[in-house]
Amino acid sequence: MKKQYLFFVALFCAQLSWAEITSSVDLRLYYAPVNGQSENELRLALQGVIGNHTAVCYKQLGILMQWSDTENADGVHVIDMYTDCTFTTSGAITWSNTSSVGGGMNREHTVPQSWFNENEPMRSDAFHVFPTDCKANGHRSSYLYGECENGSSLSSNKCKEIGRLGSSDWQEYSGTVYEVADEYKGDIARGYFYMATRYAGQCENWSGGAFTDENLGLSNYTAALMLKWHRQDPVSEKELLRNEVIYGNPAFNKSDKKQGNRNPFIDFPELVEYIWGEKKGQSVEVSVLETAYVEEPIDPHEGLENTPAGPAATKILRDGQMLILVGGHVFSLTGQCIE
């Protein structure tokens, strides 16, 4: 499934069906305890908001993922971030082992279980566990994420892996890395920022090399990589729905399984900049942050009367805010012309 970003690329090339995704909680009240905090104090304040969640039994994650990881939360068409394989389910997602791509699915821990000794609640925390093809899952193994232009991908006569494994292209890390497809890099990054926040004080002692005390729960390499991926791949409809399902919004979660907490970096992507990015040292006021949620369908022509109809839209991040650059003009996510 390709991401349908909450931007108006469709202004010039296609008709998008805008999903009305709203939060089941007042986000500014939910995150009010973090007001006035910065850097590590902000990370710890966020931990206080999202910590002590209700752990879903590891064996029952497939019940939750029937809704958190299917297209438009339809409970049928499973989204696999590692392959282009077609997986469907008529109930809880089931797990299997197979020797070929497309043969079955498994639970992929983007933060490998071995790094935290398979301890709970990390092992079953749905914000970093996704259903993926089990052969591709094994291909990623426990390698760090990274970028590897010359990496290799697996395939079968059914489908192929869209991620790849190879030698890191970054000077900061020379080992073997796994690179996910561009459309899912932000998903992985916001999951890592969540883990470094939810498990602040613990993650610094995990093995694997990604979580350390170098940069507020992350290694310098991982923090830099995840910042890049977070900025390049803004929050998608898929992530908004997943956030709501895991939280327990009954409009999208049709099961009795929920964690009751949220990923703050999906709700307010700009928070990443205050902890690891360009706004380190600045205090947060949630009331001025731009939420990733759309409260109503966007009129693709609102405020865009003078916008050229030809150029393609480009996603940019400025001062921690996701914006759209079109034909020399800058627009907010709601279509307001800024300059």
Can you put this structure into words, describing what you see?
This protein has 339 residues and is an alpha+beta fold. The chain folds into two domains: 58 residues, no CATH class; 273 residues, no CATH class. 23% of the residues lie in helices and 11% in strands. The protein contains nine helices and ten strands. The strands form four sheets. The protein has a three-stranded mixed sheet, with no helix packed on it. A three-stranded antiparallel sheet has the order 8-9-10, with no helix packed on it. Strands 1-2 form a two-stranded antiparallel sheet. It is globular. The N terminus is likely disordered.
Summarize the amount of helix as a percent range: 10-25%
Sequence stretches where pLDDT stays below 50 over 5 or more residues: 1-19, 295-311
Subunit arrangement of the protein: single chain
Strand content: 5-15%
Q: How confident overall, as mean pLDDT?
A: 88
Strands in their spatial order, largest beta sheet: 5-7-6
Whole-Å distance between the termini?
A: 33 Å
Major β-sheet profile: 3 strands, mixed
Separate helix tally: 9
Order of SSEs: HHHEEEEHEEEHHHHHEEE
Shape: globular
